[in-house]
Fold these 4 entries.
Entry 1:
Amino acid sequence: MNSRALVLKIFVILVAVIILARLFHLQILDDRYKIFANNNVLRHEVQYPPRGEVYDRNGEFLIQSRETYDLMVVPRDTKGLDTALLCQVLGIDMEIFHREYKKAENYSQRRPSVLFKQLPKETKLKFDEFNFPGFYTQYRTVRSYPRKIAGNLLGYVGEVNQKNIEADPYYRSGDYIGVSGIESAYEKYLRGEKGVKIQLVDVHGIPKGSYADGMYDSLAVPGASIVCTIDSRLQALAEELLEGKVGSVVAIEPATGEILVMASSPTYDPDKLVGRQLGNNYAELLRDPYRPLINRAVQSWYPPGSTFKLVNALISLQEGTNSASDSYPCNHGYPYGRGVKCHGHHSPVNLTAALQTSCNAYFCYTFRNLVDNSKYGSVKDGFDVWYDYVESFGFGRKLDSDFRSEINGTLPTRERYDRIYRGSWSSMTILSLAIGQGEIGATPLQVANLVATVANRGYYYIPHVVKSIEGRDSIDNRFYERHYSKVEKKHFDVVANAMWKAVNEWGTATGAFVKGWDVCGKTGTAQNPQGNDHSTFACFAPLDDPKIAISVYIENGGFGATIAVPLAKLLLEQYLTGEVQSQDVYDRVRGININYSKAYGQ
């Protein structure tokens, strides 16, 4: 018993010594907890990192970060404030000041809150000359756009909402986040990492220095810089040529899938969605009936029109339901059923001549030869074969690009036609698909991807807009993978050569000729029940070792050769030769302003 009592006494003494030693350390040697308990003398200031900057493929700035400051206030500490002087320094009306100050008081007397956002550096320097009790500035950055281009593509930054905060613990009220475009898609790289600075302040809220010599501070880590795939000179030219028109231009480097141009019209000055007028400017853009905030390249779908004949030609060759030498008559159209009209040209035509002249009748014959072929068992089974081929070219689904707002487009299914026609339909019922009309709809990006697939003779890389990210060896692996269509290379050679003849010998696309560059193209005039036809053109160059593939789509522009072809020609000249060579064509395209009053209710 004595032995046990001794052990217990020793244990109690040891515990008491440990507790006393810990109390001595906390109360005498380490004043950290005492100060933390007295929060009125410590101020935790978030250190916001500058967002990563964005360059074009040639190293030119597309987005920069500009220094700015938020004015913070702790209402409890503002006793003795010279309000008139502060308003004079800030250049702010007294009534506005009191209104915002009241909001801060209602939020909290003790906790800091933002009184005014995004003050310029010059105002911050004036503010620093005075010790306004309870006020301090917090470093932030805002975006600036040296080239004033690609607003829809680059996107913009806005204040986080509750949904953002709940989805990611990184964000707090008052933080900023990429809302659209590249800013949104690459937010986790561009935003950086926040730091913190702990300041000792007196009872009036005046800073007295860093707490513990900055031992507990952490530095903000700037966001990563991004090199974009865009050619800013080509992008600027595309936007210039689109002025006065509604539509889109997409250009892709076939060998990589890198997007060289993504222009949507009408667009907006990206600087409008920066700073204290962001809300007002956004509301104004939202009210615009022409919807400049919509990136038509990925968020609008249209009937592809005659550019889609490339797909039907390739499918018929692969399936053997037509050969390149088969000819069909055309006397201003396809004469059966309700008929399909066509413009005048020589007759009969084989595949090459049909692509050169964009013959509707030829493709009605070939479409029916495919869908009605007895080897499939039924028309519906033949249609399923056609559907699988079309989907392999990237239609009817997202391409999985780095645009989160990308839409699927439309590709009708067998089930959809069964619902529409109650199970009773034939190749004549859906004949408009032969010429890229009817229930099929494609985004300009999907059409650009189609022509890049033809340029590559059967495969494509997922189109993307970021070339490299600072601190990373590569971008997402999915952008390096080849995606093959279901058509063999030999058939693409036939179609590519026909596209070359359409531009370089005779055909509907001769207006895209660029000397020495073997341009290959296919025009399209997409029917539009709401007004004038849409003008479209898909091309690539050169025939061998292609460097660029372009899709142009102009709403209500008429024939493909009228606007889309000359516009693409100018982009080809700029990219392939380094300058616009055809000044007369440039003047003509720039001079075209389409009246959209009926289409857009103006």
Note: The chain has a mean pLDDT of 92.
Entry 2:
Amino acid sequence: MNINPKAILAAAIVAVAPMVSAWTPAGDKIKTAWGESLNPENVWQEYPRPIMERSEWLNLNGLWNYAILPKGQSVPENYQGEILVPFCAESSLSGVGREVGENNELWYQREFMVPASWKGRRVILNFGAVDWKCDVWVNGTLVGGHTGGFAPFGLDITDALAKGRNELVVRVWDPTDRGPQPRGKQVSNPDGIWYTPVTGIWQTVWLEPVPETHITALRTLPDIDAATLTVGVLSDNAAAAGLKAEVKVKDNGRVVAQGSSVNGCPVEVRMPEDFRLWSPDTPNLYDLEVTLYKDGKAVDKVNSYAAMRKFSSKRDNDGIVRLQLNNRDIFQFGPLDQGWWPDGLLTPPSHEAMVYDVDKTKDLGFNMIRKHIKVEPATWYTYCDRKGIIVWQDMPSGDRNPEWQNHRYFDGTEMHRSAESEDIYRKEWAEIIDCLYSYPCISTWIPFNEAWGQFKTQEITEWTKRYDPSRLVNPASGGNFYPCGDILDLHNYPGPAMYLYDAARANVLGEYGGIGYVVKDHIWAPDRNWGYIQFNSPREVTDEYVKYAGELLNLVGRGFTGAVYTQTTDVEVEVNGFMTYDRKVDKMEEDRVRDINTRLVKSLDR
């Protein structure tokens, strides 16, 4: 059951602001159609964690009180206005539109009421993502905190709860490019390929009730060669003594396989002989029902899903190492998808807006997306699972400027990070892999983009491969190259080129293109726009795109087995997208793009 948040809030909240909200989008930048029609009383209502779903939850998105105060001050006595969660303070859709900065902290406050039906269970407060360091109080009691701007986290707030109304306060500090933490494309002074800072809550906030002993995470691993599906069922009971986990695999509601384990061991399920494979053409998914038993009694149950698929690489008959899906050669081809929005920044204005980009990618004939130095909401990965989109997942770049960008390619020089910076990177990379591990669509981990903060490449690559041996590791997309991992990844703008080749690994073109085209009235900054090259019409842009794609097609025979075109949309002053930043104008002739893209993704079919 999804508890209706509107009904609860009506009974629970003592309003600090007037009954009629004064919320309105901030600033005068371009907006998406979804942002223009956004209703602050009905924002991001989708269940936020479909890879591990429970039947009861309470959405806390909506209008909260906020204050921006100098760093180090205590809880505000008065708040400065309302902010629309889950949009960051700098975004238009937050209603604030103010930069917070390294010398200030962003405070949030709201009230909520726990449903009476949850009595006797633990209550977990979940955050989809908060950038970057946060502390959380419930009824004046500190219940925990988190550092890391891209991974979800949950806090057990049960012991701090009161009967009736409860007060929730969150404090956030984010130094952006003045700190050592991963941040992606955010900088204090955005320009060119660098974008507006993001501070605070930027994904869904929600409550869920759980039993005393409960499932905390699932770790799903398919093996198509052995015809097995292994499900790690993690619980809050570290010892796991006396616990039994049971997994039922369903196909269209019918149980087709099942298995169980005790004492915290992973559940290994033998799949039927005629199990169905997942691929971009046939994205078959199986539903999972996972039950946890204690002393013979069922204490917790979650719903999930999985797919039978295998990502690997193998040398073909010509001696070229090819990417493979389900033991067959495949050319993985997709756009560089930065996931930024003119009105929400890191946060899409709505679920419909978010999936629009994925649908457009599929419609253009691509079979892959490179998710560029950002982690999306969990629902994005589920949608890719369902649509049949392969995902290359970047680790967000970071560290302090100006040392952050180390562009000394090919000379073996790596950045030296402080111990603090290394620790932050390792913690956040592990958290990102943990939260994304079970999504079938992800084929490849990319620890570093170019040489942006690249350090200890071989060590980080080997750790990533050990931590998740089921996926490929692309050590440094376009960066300093070392003989490690599964892939050599070149970047070349504007046209494709193969200037290095590794006979022992798969070779890909991780970025190329960047064809610019300014569409009047659909640009972020009228006085600034940027692309690697620029043209003046959809026909000209498409001609150049098709020319580059034809050159890439010729390079497939020489060894390329994957490629990434820059990019899905314009982003701030970049004007090299398939779509304008507001998603209102398609900038190329889609039929011609789809035709050449289809030829590329089918180029290795045997």
Note: The mean pLDDT is 93.
Entry 3:
Amino acid sequence: MNYFEKRTFEGDKVPGLTKWLYTSSGMFRDAAYQFVSLFLLSFVQFFALGSVTLEEYTQMFLAITIIIAVLRIWDGFNDPIMGYIIEKVHFKKLGKYRPWIAMGALLNSLVTILMFWVTPTGWAYVAWFGVSYFLWDLTYTINDISFWAVLPSLSNDEKVRANLTTILSIFISIGTFAVGGIVPLLASGNQGPTYRVVSIVVSVLFALSQLILVIFMKERKQDEIIEQNNEKMKFREIFTVVGKNDQLRWTIIAILLYYTGSSVLTGAGLNYFYFNFGYAEGGTYQLYFTIVFAAATLIAQFIYPLLVNKLKIPKMRLFEICCLTTIASYVLLFSYVFYTGPATFALLCVFGFIAFLGQAIISLILYIMIQDSIDFNEWKFNERRESSTFALRAFTAKIASSLQQLILYVFLYASGLIVYSNAIANFEREFMNNSSEILNQYNAFLASDPIEQMQLIIFHIGFTIIPMLLFLGTYLIIRFKYKITEEFHIKMCKEIEERKIRYKEENSGEKTQNG
């Protein structure tokens, strides 16, 4: 028996080292993902596409938007296929998930660095973007599906899972804050070179954290019945699992709407702060707003166990409260465009805090719901399908990302603000590392063609009203279609355990007779 074969455990209690290595590694992998998610388009928009005319800029930015959309459609097949491969292809001496986690992290880290350091000019860059983005997405999918499939496989106890999910979410929030808060401050007026250096830092940390996890974690021994069913799994079943399991199906649809809604405001990124507060202070204001985001998200992680375990608020009731509160906060965020009184940024932070707090708790509940839907699948069909299920979750995240990019392009174009984006890109590329000259050039451009309030109103519709409608859809689906309450989940788990005990007794009896 080799080193990795020994690193397994039984039961629902997760070993301490595995618990903390698994959850803490989420900080570095999410920091790497968020860096690309938050800043790749800023890198493209405000640096890589520079030194071209407005017409070329608009065409190339549209081409990149289409590339992302097409690759997300490909993800509709890629993610479930990868989930199927992970379910079927086991490196028995290395464990079910370890090899895929390591392979995805190492390859993705390499591709991330190349994406920011290889920047040919003109349409050659658009072609390179398509190739590199495809490779980045493919390699991250390998790591992402295997990493998240570990979570429900570690324990069937909902309290243990909720604890793991909460701790993991805290570390993810720290990684998001570190990248989303510090990078804009460092990159102000010097985006291209800064993003390149950061790409190396986050990629190395991502790769190292995943390698440490793979070497020292313990995987839970898989149930014999489940493993036998996984081995019999046919290719077509990767597409039918969501069709058979209605609770999984409605959860995935709700997650897609939620991911899209929650990513739209962050997808505005520097655009929002440049156009509302100016180029000189945009990065600083984004840093402050990211601190608000991080504070709200971290507070949510700590108060969620209190609300559920101490105050005994049912998760469905808490979900309803948070959805309605978040919807109301987005209405306030839209109204902010009309407010010109004192303490305007402070007011924006208040509205944002309410929105981010509600979103973070919604996210936690949806994570638990998708894990419960895996138990539902085992209860109903005697199959768990962790990898295939989390492939669907990864698919929804990527579809949401492409919709986020589409919304950004549509509202930049509809509002006419794409003109100012093009101006910043040209000045950044021409006067790289000279922030004062970039500022002078942009201010002169702005003075000759100032941004009008109607342009900002159109822009705000895209990043407040659209998410509000998506959150409303999320609420309605869960409210009327999701049925796995705490009581029902306890009943399911009890019946699953009884089934396993009967199987062991029957199997033991057969072995005795044969002996």
Note: The chain has a mean pLDDT of 85.
Entry 4:
Amino acid sequence: MKYLFFPTNIGIRGYSKKRYISIFVDPNGKNRINTKAQKHNFLTNIPVLRGLIYFFFGIYAMFESYAETMKIQAENLSQEIHRMSNKTKRTLIYFFCFIVAITFSLLLLGYVPSKLSFAILGESKNFLLRNFIIAIIKVFILFITMLVLRFIPTMQELYKFNGAINVISENKANNEISFKHKALNFLNYFVFVFFLSTFVITLVGIRISFWANWLVNLAIFLGIVTLSYELLWLLGKNSKLEKACIITSFLVCMKPNTTHVEVAKMLNAQLSMKDNYYGEKMENGKIPLSTLLAEMQLKLTKAGKYDKSDVDWIIATVLGKNRAEAKLVRSFDEKTYREIMKATEQRAAGKPLSAIFGFVDFYGMRFTVNKKVLAPRMETEILVEQVIKASEGIKKCEILDIGTGSGAISISIAKNSPAKVTAVDISKQALEVAMQNAKDNGVKVDFIESDLFQGLKKSKKFDIIVSNPPYIPTEEIETLDEEVKKYDPKLALDGGKDGLDFYRRIIMDAGQHLKKDGLIFFEIGKGQFTSVKKILEKNGFIDIQGLKDYNKIYRVVKAKYGNVK
């Protein structure tokens, strides 16, 4: 037994020979991770012994896991309950479970089967037949009880996390959910033992004395614990035979969703990482990709900052490769590993990637950024793409970029079209960054320090005007993520009371600087399309269109100047 996994209704706990790791999803949807170095020398693959260990250690682990989940869930309960000591909580939990188990056993597994057997057989003296009927009734009652539990939401979550454990045992690709019933899943094993021992002990029906009965039944039970493990182990060796375990497995396993699987895969990777990297020699002295990804995911998820694209970007940047090339790298030397983890820790602390590395990749180019300019976002590439496409049909096209910042928009357009591009910005520091980016990317752009159109000649006209102006309402700036408020310049965010100040100012004067049938393009914020469209219409623009981004949100507005003002 290399790893052992035990589910709860909010997560999974996993054990290796060196430690245990718990990953639970708290009431706020965030992953809570707890790990402790703890030697488990009893994990063994010795026949007979392994079944006993798996069963009794599993019961202990399940109780410990539930005690841990109760602690997490108690954080949302009243202060009085929250102040209760962990010891008191556990005692209450164990006592409640004990009372429920005793009551269930006496009523459903003692009194009811006995009465039903007399109703079926009457006064029959056939001892074996009577015990057989009672055993069948007990198993049937257990089966129906387990079936009813599947309709309780809390139990459904437990069974889905249990199903996620089956998924990781399939060793499929990270993005594939291959759910199958597995023979040696702990809950399946536990239910199988419970059903079989109930049937056999009832069928045998030893009647000697209290202690003799107890000892014989205990011996039978331990034998069934051992034999059940070996039987399920054999079934698990054959994919066709393993399907037979569905008789009990479907009672305690349900198909998981992505969240359940991500928790299970993260836990599996963490156990592997901790065993391999911390203590054991890595293959060829390098850290494998799976280990690196697991540790990155753990740190970022714990901080609530996990994003797969960020992980890919960090690895590719440290390696000095593009993302496609970086995905081919399967292992890392210790120096590279440390650099990647340093960047990961900074990202987990809330520092954006642009601030960590001092640059971003945008439209196939690299742009230096700092606190004086807004780091270009991926969705802004849609704006650039639309402007380039529109410029293709215009001879000797001239384009104006208003509020250029890092120069990402103007430089990307100039690099990918024959258009003559002019870019303005009110910030001298931002223009210095933009000019350096143009030089680094081998692009010619005419940069002018100007508050919108003020620094331009009144007679100067363009075929296209493009802008990604500040569009965050002033009152909402303080509600933005800390990393945005801390690292992005307020000048590039604040769009006034309703976020539309710069649209009004640009649109009001744009007609004076557009040629006949000139076009204007804006990037807009969520929910601003209708408002910007009205401003455009009011100022003589026609053929107004909105384009959606990757999240189906209107992100770009395109309009033609109607020359009617």
Note: The radius of gyration is 33 Å.
